[in-house]
């Protein structure tokens, strides 16, 4: 299930003051996997270029959390960021520095962009629980999985007319065929709209031909 744009807007408005708002924003607009967001570290965030580099995932294997490189070569990628996402990450960085000062010697220097209140790494399952229990339910929105935010990001990109190859590279899919097969219904709607827009470009005296 994927939220409609108005649902996503309501969610982001509701989550605006949440400590991990930038994480939800990043997944919602740029389609990171949960493990990629949890594994992201500050050296991989380039504010000047407006981009993040994905080089690791923080995943759960048999109940234990471990870090590894993305499951495919396409998973290691540079993702361009819009101005709103850059602003969200900058605000998050500022708040994290304030938290670090407040915790003093008790602060855990994990280097993670998204971490617990004391700086220690996030458990991916805890992130999913926060998304569902603390935010989605409280906002009164249709229940979806955190992974569905990633699907929603792809749908938004396609609806905005972003080329399928760009969507594939942003999501870190191994091939454009996988992206096309995953989002067939969305792509069909976009393709139909494009066909109608193309037809409207040709002036006609008769419309019944």
List the helices and strands and how they pair.
Blueprint: H1 5-14, H2 21-30, H3 34-39, E1 45-46, E2 51-54, E3 57-61, E4 64-68, E5 77-80, H4 83-103, H5 124-136, H6 146-159, H7 164-171, H8 176-182, H9 184-200
Antiparallel strand pairs: 1-2, 2-5, 3-4
Helix pairs in contact: 2-4, 2-6, 7-8
Keywords:
209 residues, 51% helix, mainly alpha, two-stranded antiparallel sheet, hpI Integrase, Chain A, 9 helices, 5 strands
Explain this structure to me?
It is a single chain. This protein has helices spanning 5-14, 21-30, 34-39, 83-103, 124-136, 146-159, 164-171, 176-182, 184-200, and strands spanning 45-46, 51-54, 57-61, 64-68, 77-80. The chain has 209 residues and is mainly alpha-helical. The chain has a domain at 5-145: Intergrase catalytic core (hpI Integrase, Chain A, Orthogonal Bundle), CATH 1.10.443. Strand 3 and strand 4 (64-68) form a beta hairpin.
Summarize the structure.
This protein has 209 residues and is mainly alpha-helical. The chain is built from 9 helices and 5 strands. Helix 2 runs antiparallel to helix 4 (83-103).
- How big a fraction of the residues is strand? 5-15%
CATH class of the domain at 5-145: Mainly Alpha
| Count of beta strands | 5
Rg measurement, Å: 19 Å
* Intertermini distance: 40 Å
Mean pLDDT: 91
Contiguous low-pLDDT stretches (5 residues minimum) are none
* Coarse structural class: mainly alpha
The tally of helices reads: 9
CATH superfamily of the domain at 5-145: Intergrase catalytic core
Fraction of residues in H or I helices: 40-55%
Which oligomeric state applies? single chain
Q: Largest sheet, order of strands side by side? A: 1-2-5
Biggest sheet descriptor: 3 strands, antiparallel
CATH architectural label of the domain at 5-145: Orthogonal Bundle
CATH topology of the domain at 5-145: hpI Integrase, Chain A
């Amino acid at each position: 299930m994927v939220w409609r744009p108005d649902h996503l807007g309501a969610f982001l408005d509701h989550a605006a003051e949440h400590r991990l708002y930038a994480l939800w924003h990043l997944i919602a607009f740029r389609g990171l996997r949960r493990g990629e967001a949890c594994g992201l570290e500050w050296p991989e965030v380039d504010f000047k270029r407006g981009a993040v580099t994905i080089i690791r995932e923080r995943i759960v294997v048999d109940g234990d959390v471990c870090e590894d490189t993305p499951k495919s070569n396409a998973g290691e990628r540079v993702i361009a960021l819009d101005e709103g996402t850059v602003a969200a990450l900058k605000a998050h960085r500022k708040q994290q520095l304030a938290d670090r000062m407040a915790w003093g010697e008790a602060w855990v220097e994990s280097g993670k962009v998204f971490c617990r209140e004391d700086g220690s790494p996030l458990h991916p399952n805890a992130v999913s629980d926060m998304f569902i229990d603390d935010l989605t339910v409280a906002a009164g929105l249709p229940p979806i999985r955190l992974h569905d935010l990633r699907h929603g990001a792809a749908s938004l990109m396609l609806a905005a007319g972003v080329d399928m190859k760009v969507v594939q590279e942003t999501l870190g899919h191994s091939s454009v065929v996988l992206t096309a097969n995953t989002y067939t219904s969305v792509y069909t709607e976009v393709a139909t709209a494009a066909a109608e827009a193309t037809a409207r470009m040709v002036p006609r005296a008769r419309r019944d031909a």
